[in-house]
Design a protein that fits this description.
heterodimer, A: mainly alpha, globular, B: mainly alpha
């Protein structure tokens, strides 16, 4: 098995873990699955660094490990862990539909990617398709989930997808880009977590459909 | 020479699975008792039950017809054919003329068809309800099995179960994600087909008094019980033999076959332990909620197809 196959294989794990993040029961489990997914992302960075000879990616992997595997899930787990809305418990049929939706999104993204001519990442087209699909899965999570906190996770998924795209296409970019990407993510997550807890304490709901009135 | 060997292997494999079936179900009963922290029946209890039933008198309901009488034999024969045709100890299928994914799916459907038909034929309400549930499960599970097997056939380039087993034994193609997703879908399907607790719809002991088995007695019931046990073992062996074939014999010699048998038994024990843990840690499903779970299996199979198409 070559390194490129390993990268592609690990990329498929990203889809599986993101489906778990979207459909997990409760924020704590979602945060743990998110940590798992970020760890897969770190592994992809390491495998990619070893295969395409891009030593900077090792540093990317280290930064991503600290921020995405440890810091962001920790923040989510601590600030949002106890915040639940029993009315929004996920449904088993919804899980089945998300898997089918995920499969459809991956297929469409692969069709899109295969029409683009890319000499840089010709062997990594499957992984590129997955990274694109991952972005759209996060978007779908934001659009389709009624749970406010799941939408925060949707944002994180989009962010992971674009991060992978960056690593595949521009893996010799300076670390500054990487640091910019992850600080952006951390601050966004902190702000959204604070807003989420405030909404829960003021309005006693996490359902975005019920956020129709202004309350001070 | 080769054909003799193949026939002996096929018959031996079928006979071994048939003889092992009550032991396997006894093992899962022991595990169930252990998880409940009670003593439970001895390991060989199912053999005793079957032998006792074989000696008893058979009573047939008044309105029951030929289907009712013939069903135990049809069920047993069909399951034995599946047991003989699929690759278990060897990578290649012993009866390659029958060891095909289409014949496998059709034979499974035949089992379900006669099982539910006999339930209707017996005239009992419980049995009829069990029969309708059995056909519902058939409609829900067949897409999962078919789609997963289609992807497996695409991966192997052949619908022959032996070829599929060979391609899964050597993960050199690089399509690991697709292979894993197919294995997961088949494992799910095998679990549902084993009729263990969240999916014991047709023979639900607590609700339907064992469904289509209600009106059977004596030797007929013995054969049926044996067949149900055999089906559980066949599904587990199908998962192991075709999709987890590491350690199976590539060449026909006594030493490799012996080693393959040892590895197979270890894998079988692992599978039954996992199944026991799952079936004892979940509650019964409501029947109308079953489709919600089975759709997840179909989703995994669809994901496998997409992974194959994308080239993962």
């Amino acid at each position: 098995m070559t390194g490129l196959q390993l990268v592609n294989g690990l990329a498929s794990l990203l889809i599986v873990t993101s489906l778990l993040v979207i459909e997990a029961h409760g924020v704590r489990r979602s945060a743990l699955y998110y940590a798992l997914q970020s760890f897969v992302l770190v592994l992809i960075f390491v495998a990619l660094a070893a295969t395409v000879d891009a030593p900077r990616l090792f540093l990317w992997a280290a930064i991503a490990f600290v921020t995405k595997v440890v810091l962001v899930p920790f923040i989510m787990y601590r600030t949002l862990g106890g915040v639940e809305d029993p009315a929004l418990a996920p449904h088993r049929l919804a899980f089945a539909w998300s898997i089918l939706l995920g499969a459809a999104v991956v297929a469409i993204c692969f069709v899109v990617v295969s029409t683009v001519h890319l000499p840089v990442a010709a062997a990594l087209k499957p992984a590129l398709a997955i990274s694109l699909a991952h972005f759209f899965l996060g978007l779908a999570c934001i659009v389709m989930q009624r749970n406010l906190l799941k939408q925060v996770f949707g944002y994180c998924l989009m962010e992971n997808g674009s991060h992978l795209t960056l690593a595949l296409m521009a893996n010799r970019a300076p670390e500054l880009v990487e640091i910019g990407v992850v600080t952006d993510a951390i601050f966004a997550v902190i702000i959204m977590a604070v807003i989420g807890t405030m909404i829960r304490s003021r309005l006693q709901t996490l359902d975005v459909r019920q956020l129709t009135s202004l309350r001070g | 020479m080769a054909s003799y060997y193949v026939i002996i292997l096929a018959i031996g494999q079928g006979a071994a699975l048939l003889l092992l079936a009550p032991l396997a179900s006894g093992f899962s009963r022991v595990l169930r008792a252990k998880i409940h922290t009670r003593t439970g029946p001895p390991l060989l209890q199912d053999y005793r039950d079957i032998f006792k039933l074989l000696k008893r008198q058979e009573i047939v309901p008044k309105g029951a017809g030929l289907i009712f009488r013939a069903m135990p034999f049809i069920l047993m024969a069909t399951l034995l054919l599946i047991a003989m045709s699929m690759p278990v100890l060897t990578l290649a299928s012993p009866l390659s003329a029958v060891g095909n994914m289409f014949t496998f799916v059709c034979l499974l459907a035949l089992v379900r068809f006669f099982f539910s038909l006999s339930g209707v034929d017996s005239g009992s309400t419980f049995a009829g309800l069990g029969a309708s549930r059995e056909t519902t499960m058939c409609t829900l599970m067949e897409p999962v099995i078919l789609l997963a097997l289609f992807v497996a056939a695409l991966l192997a380039g052949s619908t022959d179960l032996g070829r599929i087993s060979v391609s899964f034994a050597s993960p050199s193609q690089g399509l690991i994600a697709a292979e894993l997703a197919v294995t997961a879908a088949i494992a799910f399907a095998a679990f549902v087909e084993m009729g263990k607790v969240p999916f014991d719809m047709a023979e639900a002991e607590q609700e339907l008094q064992e469904g289509p088995l209600t009106e059977y007695s004596g030797p007929g019931l013995a054969l049926l019980k044996w067949s149900v046990r055999l089906k559980q073992l066949v599904m587990a062996s199908f998962l192991i033999g075709v999709f987890l074939p590491y350690g199976a014999a590539a060449s026909p010699s006594a030493a490799t076959l012996l080693w393959a048998a040892v590895v197979f038994l270890i894998k079988l024990v692992v599978v039954f332990v996992v199944v026991a843990v799952i079936e004892n840690s979940v509650a019964r499903n409501r029947f109308f909620m079953t489709s919600h779970s089975t759709w997840i299996g179909f989703g995994v199979a669809a994901l496998a197809l997409v992974f194959y198409l994308v080239g993962l």
